Amino acid sequence: MARHSWAEPYKIKMVELIRMTSREDRERAIREAGYNTFLLRSEDVYIDLLTDSGAGAMSDQQWAGLMLGDEAYAGSRNFYRLRDTVEEYYSYRYTVPTHQGRGAENILSQILVSDGQYVPGNMYFTTTRLHQELAGGTFVDVIIDEAHDPESQHPFKGNVDFAKLDALVERVGAAKIPYVCIATCVNMAGGQPISLENLRQLRKWCNRQHIMLVHDMTRVAENAYFIQQREPGQQDRSIREIVYEICSLTDAATMSSKKDAMVNIGGFLAMNDPGFYEQACALVVVYEGLHTYGGMAGRDMEALAIGITESVDDDHIQARVGQVKYLGHRLIDSGVPVVRPIGGHAVFLDARRILRHLPQAHFPAQSLAAALYLDSGVRSMERGIVSAGRDSTTGEHHVPELELVRLTIPRRVYTQAHMDVTAEGVFSVMERADKIEGLRFTYEPRMLRFFQARFEPVSYSDCIPAQ
Ligand code: F0G
Description:
Elements: H1 23-32, E1 47-48, H2 60-66, H3 77-90, E2 94-98, H4 101-112, E3 118-121, H5 126-134, E4 138-141, H6 162-172, E5 179-183, H7 196-209, E6 212-216, H8 220-230, H9 239-248, E7 252-256, E8 267-271, H10 274-287, H11 298-311, H12 314-333, E9 346-350, H13 351-354, H14 364-376, E10 378-379, E11 381-383, H15 385-388, E12 404-408, H16 416-431, E13 438-443, E14 454-458
Parallel strand pairs: 1-10, 3-4, 5-6, 6-7
Antiparallel strand pairs: 2-8, 7-8, 9-12, 11-12, 13-14
Helix pairs in contact: 1-14, 2-11, 3-11, 4-5, 4-10, 8-9, 12-16, 14-16
The structure holds ligand F0G.
The site of ligand F0G has 15 residues, from helix 4 and helix 5.
């Protein structure tokens, strides 16, 4: 039968050259970086899969949009275009621009969360949880159990477990829950989607309890793609329609537009309630900038408005998630343990199963990320016990079940050949996995420690035994 492969719905107009490095270069670089891939210089990296955040390629339309920047301090026309685009594609009536996602999280948490309250969510995200805690709240994980199991093949591992939500209400009372925070395509679970059915039920649950529903919409288009592909009755709907419905089921949203919306910097807080908008306008001027630019230049708001329209294109999203799936299935076919099903933005290596000899106290995922860089110049990110941080009251490590290395694919940046080289790098590390040593802290920052922590290798004899 004739075969019809699909390919990316774009062609390349400009290239950025990458410096190739030797093994000696990389040994020096990772030592100087304290075995933390966040502290490597980008010049020392061959294929950069640290994050999909702000690392995507803008289209010619977006670059052209930069020339249309209206850099007026107040009332820039690009703000109005952004606001109208958010309403048209995402349904939210009011938009407050911020410099990036965490700027929106800060304003949201300061307005809605107060001392002694609880914020349930479908798994934590690092900056989101910290802002809730800084505002006096406690995050409560209400995601289904399957999300914590890398081998579970559940199609919607981002779903909420209503028994967990009910138990929380029973324990603390609905009055102590300012909102439920729901992420589309849950990052820390491996880029796993929530189903439309689960979200519709959650809307009803929130209505019954009179609790707000807030949406971390950083990767909403990728979530919509999985709904279209996997959820009964959704196959004939466009990504744009599904994205719109997801958003309209929620009351407000925080957005890091550095991901789905394909700009290098920017974000927003959006909502439907005029009173909430007024409060957000009052706070944004303290932390970000006037309410018509937040932390963004006019030109960046223009590029973002264009990026939003491109992000919901069916062909774009198929190629984007398709590339991630290609890398994932190359690894699965060779027996590499990865989080299943393959997520929307990244392939997550299961460091526990790759480095069976290392106890979690010696940071298997951090060690694996350093080893992969050393082998092939591929930069990845730890998403395990280091990222989970410490409990703010007891000071003990949070000990997550998932101990993962994230190979995150920036949008529209790398080719299939880059994916092949990455897969070969992982195979090569797997072959000598039992030789990889663990790590221990030489410097541990108090908050969001994974960004700037430094480590040193620990020889086997010094390893704390696995519990
Ligand atoms: N929410 C989610 C789900 C995210 O993945 C991120 C950022 C944020 C909020 C915060 O947004 O970075 O614009 O301030 N994730 C990046 C990552 C850093 O690499 O996963 P931000």
